[in-house]
Amino acid sequence: MKVAQTLSVIAAITIAFTMSPAFAANKTVTLSIPTMDCEVCPITVKKALNKVKGVGRIDVNPEKRIVVATFDDAQTNAAALTETTKNAGYPSKVVETRQ
Fold first, then answer.
1. Is 90 exposed, middle or buried (0-12, 13-18, 19+ CB in 10 A)?
2. Which of 67, 46, 54 is nearest to 24 (CA)?
3. What angle do CA 39, 72, 85 make, to 5 degrees?
4. Which residue has the higher pLDDT, 11 or 54?
5. What pLDDT shows up at residue 25?
6. pTM of structure
7. How far, CA to CA in Å, does 39 sit from each of 32, 42, 61, 93?
8. In the chain, what percentage of residues exceed pLDDT 70?
9. Domain map of the chain by residue range?
10. Is the separation of the CB atoms in 62 and 18 below 8 Å?
């Protein structure tokens, strides 16, 4: 009986790994946000980006008016991030993307 249970667990783990995205990778994008010019702007932008599924780390530099965001490219993309900042009232453009 234990052999059958062990085989069932191994089969379930194998299926779980084969069903997961094989090519998912973290990417980092730098967004330029020229209208980010007050104390509240970075907070608003960061809150909006944190709601995007797949976004991990977000670093906001209000002095340079840029945001560096790391995301899982199987769940979102740079275009979705620029759309999110635009919808939050802060249009942005991609200035750099890294793996």
1. buried
2. 54
3. 30
4. 54
5. 86
6. 0.75
7. 17, 7, 11, 21
8. 76
9. 23-98
10. no
Query: Quick one: tokens of 35?
Result: 């209208």
Contact 92, 31 (CB under 8 A): yes
Q: How many CB atoms lie within 10 A of CB 63?
A: 6
What fold does the segment set 23-98 form as a domain?
Alpha-Beta Plaits (3.30.70)
Structure tokens, 40: 């509240």
Give per-residue pLDDT as tens, 1-51. 566 666 565 655 655 555 545 566 899 999 999 999 999 999 999 999 999
Q: 3, exposed or middle or buried, with CB in 10 Å at 0-12, 13-18, 19+?
A: exposed
Q: Specify the DSSP class assigned to residue 39.
A: S
Angle at 28 between CA 26 and CA 33, to 5 degrees: 145
